[in-house]
Write a structure and sequence with these properties.
mainly alpha; 11 helices; 2 strands; two-stranded antiparallel sheet
C-alpha cells in the first residue's frame, strides 16, 4: 500500500485540478465573459470553492506530511536535518503562489489551492524540525490555536450564518459594526465546545484502539483490526 500511496495522492491532486478547470470553464467563465460579477462569484463559490472534492489539496498534503513522519523515517530524518532551509523553501513557495495568484481569480481557482497547500506543507515540515528556529519557539497561545484550529474550521461558517441571521432582525448599530468581532469570539467558543464534546473524546478513543510499539525510535500504530484478523486466522487453523 505504501508503494501505491504516493501515486494515489498525486492522482487526487490532479483530479482536483481537472475538476476545477472544467467547472471554471463550464460554470464561471460564461459570467466572466458576460461581465456579470455577482453571478461569477456565486458560481465560483458553488462550483469550485465549497465542494470538498475540489479542494482536497490541503488534506492530501497534510496526509503526506503525516505519512513521512510516521512511516518514512529516513526521509523524515533527512528533511528535519535542514529545518531552516526547508522553512525558507516553504516561504519562497508561498511568495511564488502569491505572485502567481494575486492578479487572477482563475489562477487562484486552478493553481492557487495546491500551491498554497504545498507551501504550508513544506513550512510545517520545517516547523517540526528540531533544527528549525520555529521549533525552538514555545508559545502557549499558538498551542491553543493549533489545538482548536480544526474545530474552529468546522464551525466558523455555521457561526457566521447564525450571527448573520440573528443580527438581521435587530437595528442595534453597535452589533452590526462589530459583526466580525462577534463572529470571531463565537467561532472560538464553538470550536472549544466541539473540541471538548466531540474531538477530544474521539481522540482518546483512537488512542485506546491503537497499540503503539517503539522500534528504533519509530512509533508505529497497529489497529485493533489486525488483532481481530489474527485471532480469526488462529481459529481457522485445523
Amino acid at each position: 500500500m505504501q508503494k501505491v500511496a504516493p501515486y494515489l495522492l498525486v492522482g487526487l491532486i490532479v483530479v482536483g485540478f481537472l475538476i476545477r478547470f472544467y467547472n471554471w470553464n463550464e460554470f464561471v467563465q460564461p459570467f466572466v465573459e458576460s461581465g456579470n460579477g455577482w453571478q461569477k462569484i456565486i458560481a465560483y463559490l458553488e462550483k469550485i470553492y465549497y465542494p470538498s472534492h475540489n479542494r482536497m489539496d490541503g488534506l492530501i498534503i497534510g496526509i503526506t506530511v503525516a505519512a513521512i513522519f510516521n512511516f518514512k523515517p529516513r526521509m523524515r530524518d533527512y528533511l528535519t536535518k535542514y529545518g531552516n532551509i526547508v522553512l525558507i523553501i516553504g516561504i519562497a513557495l508561498l511568495l511564488l503562489a502569491y505572485k502567481i495568484c494575486k492578479s487572477s481569480t482563475f489562477n487562484i481557482a486552478i493553481y492557487g489551492f495546491p500551491m498554497v497547500a504545498l507551501a504550508f506543507g513544506v513550512i510545517l515540515i520545517g516547523a517540526l524540525s528540531p533544527t528549525c528556529i520555529l521549533y525552538k519557539l514555545k508559545s502557549r497561545l499558538t498551542l491553543i490555536i493549533a489545538t482548536l484550529s480544526y474545530a474552529i474550521y468546522l464551525t466558523h461558517k455555521q457561526v457566521y450564518q447564525f450571527v448573520k441571521t440573528v443580527l438581521k432582525g435587530t437595528d442595534n448599530e453597535f452589533l452590526h459594526q462589530n459583526t466580525f468581532l462577534i463572529c470571531l469570539v463565537l467561532a472560538l467558543i464553538g470550536g472549544l465546545i466541539l473540541h471538548i464534546v466531540i474531538e477530544k473524546p474521539f481522540l482518546n478513543f483512537r488512542d485506546k484502539i491503537l497499540v503503539s510499539t517503539n522500534t528504533e525510535g519509530v512509533t508505529k500504530g497497529k489497529l485493533i483490526l489486525n488483532y481481530i484478523k489474527a485471532i480469526g486466522n488462529r481459529k481457522a487453523r485445523p
